[in-house]
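Please check this:
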Amino acid sequence: RPVSGPQMPLAAIKRQASDLPLNIVLDNSALLRPGTSLLDYKQLKIAARISRSGQSVAQSGDLQSQTQIVNPASNTEINLKIHTLVP
């Protein structure tokens, strides 16, 4: 998600919880709106969630990581630990 502006997700990657732990490369192929680029933003909020229902919107009982803010141009590796229960 962008740090400022609309909080609609820019990109999403769906995997099975049974695949964890895993490495993911977040790039423009995961964009939800074609014609944009992750590099159009100076900072992005990155997070991971395990959905109990399989829905894309967070619901009570889901597990999620802390949000990290990254510069998409930095090509930095980040680690997300999914350990917080959504109330």
In short: The radius of gyration is 13 Å.
